[in-house]
Structure formats: C-alpha cells, structure tokens
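Box 3.1 A note on notation
Throughout this textbook, protein chains are presented in two layers. The first layer is the amino acid sequence; the second is a token string describing backbone geometry. Keep the layers aligned when reading.
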Amino acid sequence: MDTILGLFGILVWIAAVMALAAGVTWAVIRLSPGGKSDKKPEQAQTESSSD
C-alpha cells in the first residue's frame, strides 16, 4: 500500500511541477515587454527570382 501511495505522490508532484512551469511561462509571456509586431519579415531575394 505504501508503494501505491508513493507512486501516486510522485505523479501528483510531477503534475504540480508541470503546472507551475506552465503558469510561470504564461506569466512571463503575458507580462514581458514588447508587443506584437505587424511587420512581416522581409524575404531575401535570390538571383533566380529576379528574372
């Protein structure tokens, strides 16, 4: 019985750590400065496309 409870505890711990990591990542992305850029990256012209 102790083994089953121990395994269940490890699974709960893993889920808690993953939830914390996801929450911190979401908060950093949400709160970090910098906005969405409307500019599209310029495509480099190759010699073959300038016919």
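Residues 2-31 form the longest helix (30 residues). The chain has one helix and no strands.
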